[in-house]
Amino acid sequence: MESVAVERSDDQGQPGGRTDERGADRMQVSRFESRLSAPAMDLRRIRHFVVLAETLNFRRAAERLHIAQPALTVSIQKLETELGTALFTRDPRGVALTSCGEAALAEARRVMFYTGQLRDTIKAAACGAAGTLRVGFVGSATYETLPRLVRRFRAEYPAVELILKEATSDRITRMLEEERLDVGLVRTPLLRASSTAIDILEMDHYVAALPQAHPLTRREILRLADLADEDFVMYAAEEASGLHSTAMAACQLAGFLPRVSQEATQIQTVLALVESELGVALVPSATQRHASAGVVYRTLADYPKAASIGLALAYLPERESPVTQRFRSVATEEFMRSGGIGATE
Q1: Model confidence pLDDT, tens digit, residues 115-136
Q2: What are phi and psi of 314, to 5 degrees?
């Protein structure tokens, strides 16, 4: 009852009550916390404060901090002067936190924690172990290459955020030059002039894709000339220039010009049109890894090496970031292990 009476009288403005003391403490703590978050605060002094608050002994705190005890004393005094309040009480029995010191300890620990996190993040980003990587890829890379690379890269560098974008090879090289991508998985050959560099990951060749009910499916191996009288689903010349040029060249080297009935940009779309019985097509052999029930693939015994295709990693050397270098390194190791890098056929 007595304490209630005192609090009530203090609320009415009478001097000397407990609430005035609490209010003064709260105001002091509030001023301290606002100064603690000021941009000019010396992080070393905050660390000194945290260690001393944990040990409550100047000698042991100085030993943990690997500094002389007088230097620690001066550091704490400067911090208290800067904040305009005492953080510790000092008497013959030892050192103790003031109410302001107790209130600020958790916040000071949080400052040190996030400072350490920021330092670690910057170090990781500087060496390519953290950050963001924007990866462009052609649709056919999803059959095997992209999953292999992404799976391994994420396992080795989990702190890197991958942003994946599907596009054609020509579009990927443009986006690299416009700095909208960091690296890209593209089909070769690339016919558009570009400042990008490429690392060949794997070489490939075309196979024939036929509708399931096509008479030529009765034969296990075909020659290109066997397709001379067929309607073709062909790659669009502008959007898929590399695939278009190599497919056309392969047919011409076999002695005929393909009769184009339909055009498409993505290999998946070409296969869908073949399955719809709109024609036959030449597609990368890697496509066979994910066969469709309505499409039959046949090897071409006389496929010319001059019309070879490939899958490559494109990037801009002069703007290559540490995380891009890490991705290229993973790709090189992954495909060297399987014989892809440097293969000629």
Answers
A1: 877 776 677 666 666 688 999 9
A2: -105, 145
